[in-house]
Amino acid sequence: MDPSAIAANVSSIFSLPEAVSRVNELIDSGNASSIELEQVISSDPALTAKLLKFANSSYFGFSGKVATVPKAISIVGHKELRNLVIAASVTSTFKGIPAELVDMDIFWNHSITCGVTARLLTTNVNSRERFFSAGLLHGVGRLILFSQYPKESAEVLGHFHQSEDAVAQAERNIFGFTHAQLGAELLKQWKLPPDIWKVVENQFDPMKEKEYQYDASTLSAAINIANYIQPCINKLQQPAEDKISESAIKTWDFLGLTAEIIESVVTVARLQVIEVYNAIR
Asked: Where are the chain's structural domains?
């Protein structure tokens, strides 16, 4: 199986709303005006409502009442705007996923927890929304597998009682690639920047590419912490043993994360996830 071919085949099934794709294209062009972005966003009432909800969220630190799209764009900025409109739309993009394989509310709660945690972990203040997006989108490849290969996915889920590493190895044995690689291919199809899809791709091997070591390690640590806060489990999955993996410890050491820092992140994340979940879902 070829992950790029699978992603191309399902890109029409799992496609971003037209307004979101247009916002992505405009920002990629490098010369998008706020007026153009406002026109595109305003053409989608659901997207407009969610963007304003984000702009008024204490989670993103925006003060004052934001009542219009232009003001939201001026506060958020163009780069962060892309990430927020994707976050606002992605949970409604994946439909028809077999309920016997995954509870979508639990799945997105876990994904949002990853996004919130990644945002808290990064030391790069100017890239916080990008880390939130990478965390939110880190598991979309799993949804593609659930949709296209339900029988094989059920077999993979049988390894959840071991660890995420065991699940990744089961995916390699059955499909020839991991859901991280497949998800990254879909994000490329969506024309997201490499500093998002490359990070998603390398979540199981954060040291693979030097350029993305810090970013991928941050995402990997966020996933591990999110697994503790909000396990992504359902009828076919059993939670992994309550122990810290060797790979997680190496990642935490690389990032300089202490037990005190992790405990603090867990405490804050638990509170923030509720607000973000309500804004998105």
From this structure: 17-92, 95-280
3-state secondary structure of 2: coil
- Encode 14-23: b = buried (16+ Cβ within 10 Å), e = exposed: bebbebbbbb
CB 125 within 8 Å of CB 48: no
The answer to whether 94 and 115 have CB atoms below 8 angstroms apart is: no
The rounded distance, in Å, linking the Cα atoms of 249 and 272 is: 25
Weakly modelled stretches of the chain, pLDDT under 70: 60-64, 231-245
Rounded CA-CA distance 191/55 in Å is 24
Decide: helix, strand or coil at residue 258: coil
CA distances to 61, 69, 125, 185, 212 from 20, in Å:
23, 14, 24, 18, 26
pLDDT tens for 113-171 read 999 999 999 988 778 888 999 999 999 999 999 999 999 999 998 887 777 788 889 99
Residue-level pLDDT at 58: 74
What dotted CATH number matches 95-280? 1.10.3210.10
The alpha-helical segments, DSSP class H, found in 33-178 are 34-42, 45-55, 69-76, 78-90, 104-121, 128-137, 140-148, 150-157, 164-175
The tokens for 83 are 């990430």
**89-100, pLDDT tens digit by residue?**
898 889 889 999
User: H or E element: which one contains 28?
Assistant: helix 18-29
User: Measured between alpha carbons, how far is 121 from 73 in angstroms, rounded to an integer?
Assistant: 25
CA angle 230, 232, 236 (to 5 degrees): 140
Amino acid 268: pLDDT: 93
| Amino acid letter, 202 | N
